[in-house]
Amino acid sequence: MRIDVISLFPEFVDACAGFGVVGRARERGLLSMHGWNPRDYAEGNYRRVDDRPFGGGPGMVMLVDPLRAAIAAAREADPQPAHVVYLSPQGRLLDQARVRELAALPRMILLCGRYEGVDERLITAEVDEELSIGDYVLSGGELPAAVLVDAVARLREGVLNDAESATQDSFEADAAIEGGVLLDCPHYTRPPRHALGDVPEVLLGGNHAEIARWRRMQALGRTLERRPDLVDETRLSPADRKLLAGYRAGPAGKPGA
Ligand code: 4FV
After folding, report:
1. Where does the secretion signal sit in this chain (predicted)?
2. What does pTM read for this prediction?
3. Is 109 annotated as a binding residue?
4. Has residue 174 got a pLDDT over 60?
5. What is the CATH number of the domain that holds 89?
6. Which residues are known catalytic residues?
């Protein structure tokens, strides 16, 4: 996969995507990233990339032409068609389902805004999709771009090794449920006994069916407790309804019981 980043601080996203599985994916050529700074395409001695908003109001707005030239340069750098994503609070809220779809693309161009945002005419002309990482305001689109790169890269074939496999993650395939997605179950590792508590016996018993059942019970219980918006309880299967009842029935179902 190729990802081009349009940003006044291209080294920012490049740095964020230089560690761990994403960094390794780049070393192994499973992901390539390229930064384009609109200031390199700005006219005049001051190489302006922003100006005051028409209609007044606080802050500055990013100019059309430097961004348009930077996007054009990124497009021309590779013959593959690019899906252009503008990271902004006005975008659709990013979720794992959309991440999975984007991870299947050969190429993306990520547009990172600064100041109050980007001139609307540039968005209309060049942007295929607006995505938000959450209902809060950041000082720039670089962090959201880095979030998107990380979420997409780890789903690319060969990026995660078996131990790191994504399938068991929250919101992932194994966490799929009739009418929703599940949060992850609790995780434990050595030591089995600790001053802070013991690892649930079921996890030490080696009975994989029992372990899978306990993990699904935990995922169900915690999801309904913490994110009831993620699951439509009325659509649970009889088996999951029984598991949930077990979780709610008391300590037996609770972690560390
Ligand atoms: C944002 C978000 C975000 C808004 C103005 C950058 C900032 C500044 N992007 N999800 N939340 N962007 O806050 O994606 O230009």
Report:
1. none
2. 0.91
3. no
4. no
5. 3.40.1280.10
6. 89, 116, 154, 169
